[in-house]
Please model this.
Amino acid sequence: MQSFSFPRNLSKLIDRETKPGMNLRHLDGIRALTMMIILLTHSSIPLIRMPLKNVNELEAQFDQPWFPIAMAGNTYTVQIFFVIGGLLLAVNILEQTKNCKSVGLAYFLDRVKLRLIRILPLYAFVILFHASWYPRLQDGPIGDRFHDHCTTNWWTNLLFLNNYINPSEPCIQFAWYLGADFQLYLLGTVLMLLMRVPKLFKPVVISMTLSAFLAPMIIIYRYNLDATVMMILRHVLQEIRTLPYYLHVYIPFETNAGNYFFGMLAGITYYHLKDNPAAMSIT
Model:
């Protein structure tokens, strides 16, 4: 029962860790707050597709100057998770390999195996639910507006390629994140192992930094897209998954790699400064 004690939990929330060493407990709070914001904003999207008494009021909001700013902020909130993922990846690998002279393919495969064991069983259960029982639960006046394609495209999720294969007909639309995150996890692990070679550290960091800026620029220019997400009402009323910006910029791993890479660089910096008293005094 003490887990629900407000005084006990409040003291933990305001407690400040002063001991040297790794202390990343604050990331749990950041993740919780970010998740609440994402759930709150995304839960409002289906309301746009509901029958409306006066559509003029909804359309008027799209003309407000604050609306594109709010939508862009909402859209890129998920990038916080990519930053945290990259940071934790770097810190964990550095900690696990600090006493290892050589790390090779066996270490990489072991990390992939543990990642799949942690994610895949529950993920497969959710996919099975969406492919079997979910279609029976969505009957109603607007049930056809929320259609998943798990009966045909479930395999793209299990291969973590659902953000590339049939992305406009996804099985569990929001699962694009798991695909992109797993792909970035694989690439990030390879890059961390390459950076263990002293001669490759600087070239890899430069490549990561350049690709973070160049990849979105090239794709946006190639497909003649807006530089940021533009919420177009006709796509919202039909399927956001048909929005060109969503298909080419929002869900591919290469356009999300920049924030993941910067998270990795932040993790590397943090790991090397965590035991430095001078650096600790700054915080």
User: Anything to note?
Assistant: The two ends are 34 Å apart (CA to CA). The chain has one domain: 20-279. The longest helix spans residues 105-132. The chain has a mean pLDDT of 84.
